[in-house]
Amino acid sequence: MLGIKFYAIILVLTLIIACSPTSNDPTHVEMSDLIGLWDSSENIAAKTDVMYTRISSDGSIIEYDFDGDEVDGGLECYQIDTGSLKNIVDNRFLVSVDMHAKKQFEVELELLDAGHALKIYFLDDNDPANTLKSQIWTRVSDQALLDNEPSCRNH
Description:
- It is a single chain.
- The protein is mainly beta.
- Helix content is 14%, strand content 42%.
- Strands 1-4-5-6-7-8-9-10 form an eight-stranded antiparallel beta barrel. Strands 2-3 form a two-stranded antiparallel sheet.
- The protein is globular and about 40 Å long.
C-alpha cells in the first residue's frame, strides 16, 4: 500500500513540474514570443516617427513607416520594407534588412510587461557587450490594423 501512495505522489509531482511554465525570465526570448504586430515608433527631436513592425513565425519582418507623420512629412501612406530575424543564442538575434544603412546587425531582446512590450538593445558591432541605444516596442492587439492602409508604392 505504501508503494502505491509513493508512486502516486511521484506521478503528481512529475505532472506539476511538467505542466509548470519553464521560465519567467524576460531575457529568455524565443521566436514565438515575437510573433505579431508591434508599435515600433520612435521619438526624434521631440517628434514621433510612426512605425509598426510585423514579425511572423518564420522570422520574416515587415516594417511599416508612415510617410505622413511629423518626422517624414510626406504622403498619407506607408513605406513598406522587409527583412528577417534569426535567433543566434539566448536573447540575441541577428536582423537582416534592406531598410537601413546597415544591412545586418545584432540586437538583444527583453520581454517586458508580460510580453506586451519588447525592449530592443542595439549593440556595437565592434564591442557587442556595449549597447549603442535601446528602444521599447509595444504589442498591438489589433493584428489587422495595417491590412487596409495604403502603401506608398501605389502612389
